[in-house]
Design brief:
440 residues, 16 helices, alpha/beta, F-box domain-containing protein, LRR_dom_sf, single chain
């Protein structure tokens, strides 16, 4: 499972001061409190990093407890300078490469993020990877966000995959060609249990690299916390159910996105994605469907939600349909509520579904009056009745409205929310806490 504890930004610390602050010593003195009181105080102040650092000077017990909140996750990010990210990471490795350290056992997750592909690494000298592995015994999660594979130094992958990594998250990774993906999967340690693959792409769009020359490394059991259709396309050559008949992959949360070919024609019915979705459907608990299609208006002849295979989604807990866009040049867009209702009726898990989220968006340059007119065309009462009838255990129906005109700070004066609250069924269920209305 991904680590969600509170974290600290380590990259801003200088090497000398960081050692003084983080490595405990016998000189730390102070009154002795019961461990229960210390834990309760620090738990209450878990978001106050400055106070936690100060409490660490009070006693050894407080120092020990506060570290779990301060350093459970360490972030390295560089919005302006890719070189600085890897330089900061090397500084961190210098802190860890010592004969004895007391803060590193509290680190459970390492997160590295940077969107540029121009990072050049300059190593700060020889360090002992073996000793670093020993001093990071509890790192269980690695997150790489918005990185180009070409900018990730190989020694970092050598290091992290020799740790007992149980969860790997790749989000917005670029340059995911055959060479990089094969190298990545070869490194997977036996301890790896769960994955997040989101927004992964190759240098060519669209591109589906051939990974079939090493099928065995892709045919071990995989458990995904999250997976999206964009990332999935990279693995068609090894994960197509027609190629691998005993595919052992389960996915907890899946996001289905629109696909486009080289001339930006709409493609929703991708055979591989739909076959794969059928295969993983029984394991799905959360399904997110994006109906965005860039600048293109909806085609009334396009079946939209109808072809999505959900007949085997027997354990679905939450469903999100996002980016339903209303456009003046698309006169049929208001009928999308009928499409949504028909789709909801096709779900096979009415008693397990607990949350539904529906997102409405407007295009730019529409007047507020026009937007309200289009929003009013939706059959909101019919939708609410359908949801109540189909899903007896539903405890949350969220309606998101976006696309600008967000300056109404008071929800009671927001024209979108005011319009929806005029509908009796919406107003009554909002008062009961079932319906939630958002404007963004």
């Amino acid at each position: 499972m991904p680590i969600t504890h509170h974290s600290s930004q380590i990259s801003s610390l200088q090497r000398g001061t960081a050692r003084d602050m983080l490595i405990s010593s016998d000189t730390v003195q102070g009154p002795i409190f019961s461990l229960e009181i210390i834990a309760e105080i620090i738990g209450y102040l878990h978001d106050d990093k400055k106070t936690l650092l100060t409490l660490g000077l009070v006693s050894k017990q407080a120092l020990y407890e506060s570290r779990h909140h301060l350093f459970s996750t360490v972030y390295f990010s560089g919005p302006y300078n890719g070189f600085q990210v890897w330089k900061d990471f090397d500084e961190f490795l210098w802190l860890v490469d010592v004969a004895w350290t007391s803060f590193t056992p509290t680190i459970q997750c390492i997160s590295i993020q940077y969107a540029d592909d121009t990072a050049i690494l300059v190593r700060l000298g020889d360090i002992s990877l073996a000793r670093i592995r020993t001093n990071l015994p509890n790192v269980k999660s690695l997150r790489l966000l918005s990185l180009h594979w070409t900018s990730v130094p190989s020694y970092i992958l050598d290091l992290v995959f020799q740790l007992h990594i149980k969860h790997l998250s790749l989000d917005g990774m670029h340059d995911c060609d055959a060479t990089n993906l094969l190298d990545l999967f070869r490194r997977f340690p036996p301890s790896l249990r769960t994955l997040d693959f989101k927004g992964m792409r190759s240098a060519k769009i669209p591109d589906r690299p051939d990974l079939s020359k090493e099928l065995s490394i892709f045919h071990r059991p995989f458990r995904f916390e999250t997976l999206d259709s964009q990332s999935l396309l990279l693995f068609e050559s090894v994960w197509h159910p027609s190629i691998c008949h005993d595919l052992d992959i389960k996915v907890k949360s899946f996001r289905l996105q629109p696909l486009y070919n080289k001339v930006w024609l709409h493609q929703r019915e991708d055979p591989f994605i739909f076959r794969f979705l059928q295969h993983i459907a029984p394991s799905l608990e959360n399904l997110k469907i994006s109906m965005a299609c860039l600048a293109l208006p909806y085609d009334p002849k396009t079946s939209l939600l109808d072809p999505i295979p959900v007949s085997q989604c027997i354990n679905l807990r939450s469903l999100e349909i996002e980016k339903i866009r209303l456009e003046e040049q698309a006169p049929y867009s208001a009928t999308i509520i009928d499409v949504v209702q028909n789709f909801l009726s096709s779900l096979p898990s009415p008693r397990t579904l607990q949350a539904i989220s529906i997102g409405i968006e407007f295009i730019a340059m529409q007047s507020l009056k026009r937007r309200l007119t289009m929003l009013e065309l939706f059959k909101w009462s019919s939708l609410v009745e359908t949801v109540q009838r189909l899903f007896p255990n539903l405890n949350r129906l969220a309606i998101h409205i976006g696309g600008g005109l967000c300056w109404f700070e008071n929800p009671t004066s927001n024209p979108y929310i005011y319009l929806l609250r005029r509908i009796t069924k919406v107003r009554d269920l909002e008062e009961k806490g079932v319906i939630e209305l958002y404007v963004h």
